[in-house]
Amino acid sequence: MQFYLVLRYNCFMTEITRVDVLHLAQLSSLELTEGEIEKLRVDIGNILGYVQQLGQLDTSGIEPTYQVTGLENVWREDKIIDYGITREQLLQRAPESTANQVKVPKVL
Question: For residues 14 and 52, is the Cβ–Cβ distance under 8 A?
Fold first, then answer.
């Protein structure tokens, strides 16, 4: 049997049913007690109600904030450093190589 999450809105509160919570628990692979189901139903309803309130705010004159810390990416040009050794010499020093590449053990 497949469940679909259906959220019902009214003007005062978002109503989340027990079935909605059980469906979310199934999607999240959670096992919930009866008390947890009711508590989550109320909490999720409150969260969605708050998000609904935020959606009603007028943000037309507010510039979006993408970065709040002031940090910036620091980019530098790639520079080739010639150590006086060729690819072939490096591959000869490797314990094993295949198709002009250093062969290493699998890491899983």
Answer: yes
**CA-closest candidate to residue 40, choices 30, 50, 51:** 30
- What token pair was written down for 104? 């290493």
Return the C-alpha torsion angle 27, 24, 38, 33, nearest 10. Answer: 0
Do residues 27 and 40 make contact, with C-beta atoms less than 8 angstroms apart? Answer: no
DSSP 46: H
| Structural domain for 47, as ranges | 8-55
Task: Categorize the per-residue pLDDT at 25 as very low, low, confident or very high, splitting at 50, 70 and 90.
Answer: very high
Classified as helix, coil or strand, 18 is helix
Does 22 fall in a domain? Answer: yes
Residue 14's pLDDT band (cuts 50, 70, 90): low
Residue 85 lies in a domain: no
How many domains does the chain divide into? Answer: 1
Phi and psi dihedrals of 3, rounded to 5? -110, 150
The CATH code of the domain that includes 40 is 1.10.20.60
